[in-house]
TrEMBL record:
GO terms for cellular component: plasma membrane. InterPro entries: LeuE-type. The chain crosses the membrane at residues 6-28, 48-68, 74-95, 115-137, 149-171, 183-205. It is a multi-pass membrane protein. One of its GO terms (molecular function) is amino acid transmembrane transporter activity. This is LysE family translocator. It comes from Entomomonas moraniae. Its main location: membrane. Keywords: Cell membrane, Membrane, Transmembrane, Transmembrane helix. It is found in: Cell membrane.
Length: 210
């Protein structure tokens, strides 16, 4: 086993996953609004989506499978609409909360987390398949076997994903006051909305140009 290559892979994955994006902001929102147990189910959902994307990427790498770029753009377009819908709900909730009951969990009705939502957010950008196709081959020589390397790289990805998103859950629960929680949810809702709008425009123009 090439441990130097493995260390580089771990550091790279840590940086990639820790960078705030739709998944991170969804986990933060869910932690604040619905508690750590629902946030954990959200993480399970995003990991489930990652496994699906990795399997497709491995099939592409090993069998030269070709998937229509138009299909990628169409699914990405729908995913951006879903992210935008969740972002608008989050912003509306954060703006409508009274000061007397800011983020009392028992009074929150709408929950934007959970296994299914985590899975859908994870699949919202199917172009992650292209990322895995281009990313994994750089580290495929970590062992002397293609299958062993794919298994090891996938396992480490899932474990590191759990570790980093779990850290976000614990950190947000420990440091946030009710007022700060409201600000975080409002901010992350706006960020999700921006991500959805940019992704939608990008996917739309790609779709009509294919």
């Amino acid at each position: 086993m090439d441990f130097n290559l493995l260390i580089i892979y771990v550091i790279t994955v840590l940086m990639l996953i820790a960078t705030p994006g739709p998944v991170v902001f969804l986990v933060i929102n869910t932690t604040i609004k619905s508690g750590p147990s629902t946030a954990l189910r959200t993480v399970l959902g995003t990991n489930w989506a990652s496994l699906v994307l990795i399997v497709i990427a491995v099939l592409i790498i090993s069998t030269s499978l070709v998937i229509s770029p138009k299909l990628f753009s169409l699914i990405s377009l729908l995913g951006c609409l879903f992210i935008g819908y969740m972002a608008i709900n989050t912003i509306r909730e954060a703006l409508s909360l009274d000061k007397e009951y800011v983020f009392k969990q028992e009074q929150l009705v709408v929950k934007n987390g959970g296994l299914l939502n985590g899975f859908l957010i994870g699949l919202s950008n199917p172009k992650d398949i292209i990322f895995f196709v281009s990313f994994f081959p750089q580290f495929i020589k970590v062992t002397d076997s293609f299958n062993k390397s794919i298994f090891l790289l996938t396992l480490l990805w899932i474990l590191l994903d759990f570790l980093i998103l779990g850290f976000y859950i614990v950190f947000i629960r420990r440091v946030s006051t009710p007022k700060v929680k409201n600000i975080i949810v409002l901010f992350s809702g706006f960020i999700l909305l921006v991500i959805a709008m940019i992704g939608f425009l990008y996917s739309f123009f790609e779709l009509i140009s294919v």
